[in-house]
Amino acid sequence: YHCFKNFNAATSITGLELVDTSEAVFFQSLFEHCVNLLTVSGLENWDTSKVKDFQTIFSQCTKLKTVDLRNWDFSSAERMRAMFNLCYVLESVQGVYVPSAVINFDYMFNCCHALTEIDMTNWGDMHLVTNFANAFAYCDGLTTIDLSNWNINPSNLDNMFNNCNNLETIYVNYDWDVSGASSSTNMFNGCTKLIG
Questions:
Q1: Calpha distance 86→12 (Å, rounded)
Q2: Contact, 185 vs 161, CB < 8 A?
Q3: The pTM is what?
Q4: 143: Cβ–Cβ under 8 A, 6 or more apart, which residues?
């Protein structure tokens, strides 16, 4: 892991289809802080079936617009915090799903200003996650978020939807209960269009 971290001058990375990832367990910070990266090609068909740690993999890729992970296998994932943290212009994340074994989710999409949709259809129920701090903070492009598959018992909800200023609707199930959270500071701060 950390293979391409801080490749600040790189605008593209190619040839990744030649990399054998079949035994990889850690993808943490793989492309973190590649601040000028525009495209990444060749990773679409990587074997990620054994990877447990995806934390900060694309964090601070501030110019990256799309990521196609439709063929990735996230079934072994346990840690996914800040995967797309500070990906300011990220418009599309294809194929990402969060299995039920994941234990952290904080800063996952923090400051993904350009994201307009996050497909959570195949996600797990998030029951092991306790920290949701800043998970969707400053996602200005989101108008709806569907969390109806989630069954959470959180401790930290700080800034979870902070300044999602175009967010109108959050869908949850009837069992949604966050009363046990020890902190929820600014959870909905700046959500001026939120109806329910």
A1: 18
A2: no
A3: 0.95
A4: 116, 166, 167, 168, 169
Which DSSP symbol is given to 26?
Answer: B
Q: pLDDT per residue over 32-42, tens digit each?
A: 999 999 999 99
9/20 Cα distance (integer angstroms): 25
Any residues with CB less than 8 A from the CB of 182 and at least 6 apart, and which?
155, 156
- Between CA 120 and CA 118 the distance in angstroms is 6
CA pair distance 54, 56, nearest whole angstrom: 6
Taking CA atoms, 50 is separated from 31, 42, 121, in Å, by 19, 19, 22
Beta-strand pair 92-94/39-40: unpaired
- Residues in contact with 113: Cβ distance below 8 Å, sequence separation at least 6, in sequence order: 88, 89, 138, 139, 140, 141
Question: How is residue 143 written in tokens?
Answer: 């108008």
In terms of residues, how long is the chain? 196
**Contact, 112 vs 88, CB < 8 A?**
yes
Q: Token pair for residue 88?
A: 């300011």
Residue 194: partners with Cβ closer than 8 Å, 6 or more residues away: 161, 164, 167, 168, 169, 170, 188
* pLDDT, tens only, 165-188: 999 999 998 888 898 899 999 999
